[in-house]
TrEMBL record:
Signal peptide: none annotated. Belongs to the TRAFAC class translation factor GTPase superfamily. Classic translation factor GTPase family. EF-Tu/EF-1A subfamily. It is found in: Cytoplasm. Residues 541-571, 615-633 have a biased composition (Polar residues). Promotes degradation of target mRNA species. Plays a role in the regulation of circadian mRNA stability. Binds GTP and has GTPase activity. Keywords: Cytoplasm, GTP-binding, Nucleotide-binding. This is GTP-binding protein 1. Residues 106-334 form the Tr-type G domain. It comes from Psorophora albipes.
Length: 633
């Protein structure tokens, strides 16, 4: 196709009476803007391409608006007025152009709701999604809780989800039927659906909140602050977590109906101070009018702006401004539909009559019904082919899901016990491999003392996407790390291998220690090599069967390949190293039977090799960044 020359549509009066060439260029330009923003864009009338010219008289403005409406009609879109400004040179205006989508398709935006306990997170979501104001005693939040103890205590302890739908004109479509929301009806009527990820505010549930921020991949963060309590408790922790994960944040101050004015002003001053500090470097903007909403929403993508809303869940004050702002939010992630499929699992279910169901986010590619994808990695690091039996998106049956969308899949011929959080469904084209170890560039946000590898291996809980597992530090580019230090660190997972990619954001924590970083190089290992960290304890008289089999078996081919890639065993060792015996394929030997008497020998697989320890003594040999003890005969 010939390239279209956009130089003919740069003037502010191009919409007044465009020629045929200009009209074609305008149509193509508007179509590209809508496609880039996943179905919508904000178009400005009366402003030139470079922004230097601005302002139209009344007749020119009316003609430009008529042209824009005809352009939108050609693209099957709606044109909604956002604001009109009257300046010295004339009128300018901004309009939301949003396409009319099919019943089974809509734009999805995920908003993580964070803040300290008792800030009013669940109450605000109950008011927004169900359309009823709160009574001041927790009436609105009851509909969002998932467990009995949450209803009794009033505190969220698990990751909750609720949706708010907007049609192509920007109107809220949530119409609760007898207090319950029908997600399917909302999605059928909506052009845009806001998914709220309700996270826990209590310090006890911090690991759940961190998993919600990393595993659910939110587009934006909504930081809730109680007007009467201010910035206390976990508020700074959650704000720092959002900043570390590069999630744009806007602030909602609740309970303004019950807070004295002087207390509210003091808390707002402290909030401004924190947002302007060196750690945040945000530009706080207090939203009071509809013009402020449009200004904040159109410039929010830069991540420097931080809009602040003051709302009341009891009186409903300023809730309309917050809904308008949510309606104007745009998708941050660009489409990766042409890449091979990659889907991360963040939860599993066993549904009666259906079977095993997994939920998560499509990171790239398109997943269609009856596709065969690779599920893994399992504890051995292998991936197995799995067919997609059915697909649900926001409880609505669909035939495909695209990149950036959340979905649930029913899988064929697999048990729920074989799947865990952190697994992935990937296309066979990617040829996926699991890794036990990975190199990561980290920044220590806080540590009470010093992280050092001199005094044993330091371990921490690693959060990377939907992965949540303890890992040990094997090597560091510096001798010790303190608060504010940067270093390249090699981690090793304790329990299972994981699927990781370079460039992924990572958070790790241990007690009060917190650090963030980017994955540089996952060190892939062959899937056929079985690796364990727990020792196989076998008791028997004299020499155990494991020692006998190790003395008889030669080094397997797969083990030799794994060994040759990192280092070579020294020839002085008289014992032969072998992979630990799988529990399902135990040799039928009488020595496997447990007896009360006799000596005991422990064996464990470390880095692809067996560690043998005898009661009398051992020889130390370095191998694969681990220490291997070889039993003396």
């Amino acid at each position: 196709k010939p390239k279209i020359d956009y130089s003919c549509i740069r003037g502010k009066t191009v919409l007044v009476s465009p020629t045929e060439e200009q009209f074609e260029a305008l149509t193509k330009k508007l179509q590209e803007l809508i496609a880039d923003n996943r179905g919508e864009t904000v178009y400005e009338i009366g402003v030139g391409e470079d922004g230097s010219e601005s302002g139209l008289d009344t007749d020119e403005y009316a003609a430009s608006l008529a042209t824009l409406q005809s352009l939108a009609a050609m693209l099957n879109a709606e044109c909604v007025e956002l604001r009109i400004r009257k300046g010295e040179k004339g009128l300018t205006g901004q309009y939301l152009v949003r396409t009319k989508v099919d019943d089974d398709d809509f734009t999805e935006i995920r908003v993580a709701v964070v803040g300290n306990v008792d800030a009013g997170k669940s109450t605000l979501l109950g008011v927004l999604t169900h359309g009823e104001l709160d009574n001041g005693r927790g009436f609105a939040r009851q509909r969002l809780f998932r467990h009995k103890h949450e209803i009794e205590s009033g505190r969220t302890s698990s990751v909750g989800n609720d949706i708010l739908g907007f049609d192509s004109l920007g109107n809220v479509v949530n119409k609760p039927d007898h207090g319950t929301l029908d997600w399917v009806k909302i999605c059928e009527k909506s052009a845009k659906v806001i998914t709220f990820i309700d996270l826990a505010g209590h310090e006890r549930y911090l690991k759940t909140t961190v998993f919600g921020m990393t595993g659910h991949a939110p587009d934006f963060g909504m930081l809730m602050i109680g007007a009467n309590s201010g910035i206390v408790g976990m508020t700074k922790e959650h704000l720092g977590l959002a900043l570390a994960l590069s999630v744009p944040v806007f602030v909602v101050v609740t309970k303004i109906d019950m807070c004295p004015p002087n207390v509210l002003q003091e808390n707002l001053k402290l909030l401004y101070k924190i947002l302007k500090s060196q750690g945040c470097r945000k530009v706080p903007v207090m939203v009071k009018t509809a013009d402020d909403v449009v200004l904040s929403a159109t410039n929010f993508v830069s991540e420097r702006l931080c809009p602040i809303f003051q709302v009341s869940n009891v009186t409903g004050e300023n809730l309309d401004l917050l809904k308008m702002f949510l309606n104007l939010l745009t998708v941050r992630t660009t489409g990766n539909d042409n890449l091979p499929t990659e889907f991360q699992i963040d939860d599993t279910y066993a549904v009666p009559g259906v079977g095993t169901v997994v939920s998560g986010i499509t990171l790239q590619g398109i997943v269609r019904l009856n596709d065969v994808l690779l599920l893994g990695p399992n504890p051995l690091g292998d991936f197995q082919p799995i067919a997609i039996k059915s697909i649900h998106r926001k409880r609505m049956v669909v035939r495909e899901v695209r990149s950036g969308q959340t979905a649930s899949f029913a899988l064929k011929k697999i048990k729920r016990s074989q799947i865990r959080k952190g697994m992935v469904l990937v296309s066979p084209e990617l040829n996926p491999q699991a890794c036990w170890e990975f190199d990561c560039e980290i920044l220590v946000l806080h540590h009470p003392t010093t992280i050092s590898s001199k005094y044993g291996r330091w371990s921490a809980m690693v959060h990377c996407g939907s992965i949540r597992q303890t890992a040990q530090i094997l090597q560091m580019s510096k001798e010790c790390l303190r608060t504010g230090d940067k270093a390249v660190v090699r981690f090793r997972f304790i329990k299972n291998p994981e699927y990781m990619k370079p460039g992924q954001r990572m958070v790790f924590r241990e007690g009060r220690t917190k650090a963030v970083g980017n994955v540089i190089t996952p060190l892939y290992t062959p899937g056929s090599v079985q690796q364990r960290t727990k020792p196989n304890k076998m008791q028997g008289r004299g020499t155990t069967s494991t020692q006998q089999s190790n003395a008889q078996k030669p080094l397997s081919k797969s083990t030799n390949e794994a060994v040759s890639t990192q280092s070579t065993l020294m020839a002085e060792s008289s014992a032969v190293l072998d992979i630990g015996t799988d529990k399902r394929n135990k040799p039928s030997s009488s020595a496997h039977k447990k007896h009360k008497g006799g000596t005991t020998s422990n064996s464990a697989v470390v880095g692809g090799a067996v560690k043998e320890a005898s009661p009398t003594g051992s020889q130390q040999k370095p191998f694969c960044n681990e220490t291997i003890s070889v039993a003396s005969n």
